[in-house]
Structure to design on (131 residues):
């Protein structure tokens, strides 16, 4: 099943869903295999360390350092990984309101991490695409 490629169709069909959990980004010196027990929702290996994204409460339980908390907004539209402009459009819309956006594209959906305290405002901004 392939996703939608056409930007206008994607933007009109975003159907963003705000997830209730708070997430954090942590950088750890550990290997991925050492961190899998924490069940991070995403990882990325950088030369400085392994970035893991996990629920705030898990990071707190394990005394992992994080500097900010985020809420995840899932764009439930099935976007193609080859679609052009979706990330830029979403980031621009949130930027208009001064909201940072950390976007992760997965196979079926895009997920935007926004500062926890700005999550509702981010949802309002994204709703403007369908108005």
């Amino acid at each position: 099943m392939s996703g939608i490629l056409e930007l206008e169709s994607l933007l009109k069909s975003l159907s963003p869903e705000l997830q209730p959990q708070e997430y954090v980004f942590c950088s750890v010196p550990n290997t991925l295999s050492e961190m899998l027990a924490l069940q991070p929702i995403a990882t990325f290996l950088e030369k400085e360390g392994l970035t893991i994204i996990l629920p705030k409460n898990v990071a707190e339980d394990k005394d992992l350092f994080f500097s900010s908390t985020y809420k995840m907004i899932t764009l439930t539209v099935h976007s193609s990984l080859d679609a052009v402009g979706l990330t830029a459009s979403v980031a621009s819309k949130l930027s208009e309101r001064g909201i940072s956006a950390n976007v992760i594209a997965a196979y079926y959906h895009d997920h935007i991490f926004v500062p926890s305290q700005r999550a509702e405002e981010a949802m309002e901004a994204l709703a403007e695409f369908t108005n």
Notes: The CA atoms of residues 93 and 128 lie 9 Å apart. The mean pLDDT is 93. Helices lie at 7-12, 32-35, 56-61, 86-95, 119-127. The longest helix spans residues 86-95.
